[in-house]
């Protein structure tokens, strides 16, 4: 079982990129793998709500939104902190143009209703500190949705390296993590927030991990 810190994961991704697997392709692989795992867990789901932050965790969520829409599911993307800011997340956000996906800012809803599955694409390894009001509201909507709650990489509101759980953090049924486990997946404080943990291969070769983890 390989466990790496957020900084080590960045180095592994950097090695993979240098070896010809682009960051955009890693995001595509992460979203695709997570989508397949979530579908295998909830094959009867028809309505998907994806709560997206503005970083790359949100980008993984946009990949899932596209794949689900192409499969004919009803897909709603909720932007918790406005439009994405990272290059690859922006690319995947714009790939939703013309697809049957409803995109709405969180300010326009007062709760998450009617979804069979809610996907937490708010924060991944980039999160630290406490939840600010917008993040806290998004986590609260997810936790109170009553839907099956699947977190991408880790439940939002948890520090990947220390396992510190911010007040109001997401309490997931399933966590799909990418390439390697992170310390929070095994720490006593944070593990219970992950639900079932599934490790997804995102195409990074073994040699990219040499000397790490
Ligand atoms: N090549 C890559 O970089 C890949 C990244 N992947 C995904 O990208 C994630 C990491 O993405 P990012 O580094 O963009 O960051 P995140 O998407 O985890 O976080 C989003 C933003 O939240 C901000 N933030 C941190 N603490 C906050 C707080 N308390 N309140 C509000 N905002 C806060 C951070 O500055 C960051 O910009 C991974 O967990 C994984 O899901 C995957 O797509 C695989 C490939
Ligand atoms: K997440």
From TrEMBL:
Protein role: Catalyzes the epimerization of the S- and R-forms of NAD(P)HX, a damaged form of NAD(P)H that is a result of enzymatic or heat-dependent hydration. This is a prerequisite for the S-specific NAD(P)H-hydrate dehydratase to allow the repair of both epimers of NAD(P)HX.
List of residues binding (6S)-NADPHX: 56-60, 124-130, 153
Protein family according to the UniProt entry: Belongs to the NnrE/AIBP family.
Protein name: NAD(P)H-hydrate epimerase
Named cofactor requirement(s): K(+)
Record key words, sorted: Isomerase, Metal-binding, NAD, NADP, Nucleotide-binding, Potassium
Pfam families per the UniProt record, alphabetical: YjeF_N
Record note on cofactor: Binds 1 potassium ion per subunit.
TM ranges: none
Positions of the YjeF N-terminal domain: 9-210
Organism: Butyricicoccus porcorum
Signal peptide, first to last residue: none
EC number: 5.1.99.6
């Amino acid at each position: 079982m390989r466990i790496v810190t957020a900084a080590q994961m960045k180095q592994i991704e950097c090695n993979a990129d240098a070896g010809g697997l682009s960051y955009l392709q890693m995001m595509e692989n992460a979203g695709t793998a997570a989508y397949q795992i979530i579908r295998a867990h909830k094959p009867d789901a028809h309505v998907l709500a994806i709560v997206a932050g503005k970083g790359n965790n949100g980008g993984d969520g946009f990949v899932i939104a596209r794949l689900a829409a192409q499969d004919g599911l009803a897909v709603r993307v909720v932007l918790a902190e406005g439009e994405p800011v990272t290059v690859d997340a922006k690319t995947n956000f714009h790939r939703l143009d013309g697809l049957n996906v409803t995109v709405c800012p969180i300010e326009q809803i007062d709760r998450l209703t009617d979804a069979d599955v809610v996907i937490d694409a708010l924060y991944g390894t980039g999160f630290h500190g406490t939840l600010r009001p917008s993040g806290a509201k998004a986590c609260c909507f997810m936790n109170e949705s009553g839907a099956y709650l699947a977190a991408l990489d880790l439940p939002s509101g948890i520090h990947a390296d220390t396992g510190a759980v911010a007040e109001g953090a997401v309490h997931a049924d399933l966590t799909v993590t990418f390439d390697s486990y992170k310390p929070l997946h095994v720490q006593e404080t944070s593990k219970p927030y992950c639900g079932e943990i599934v490790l997804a291969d995102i195409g990074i070769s073994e040699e990219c991990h040499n000397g790490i983890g």
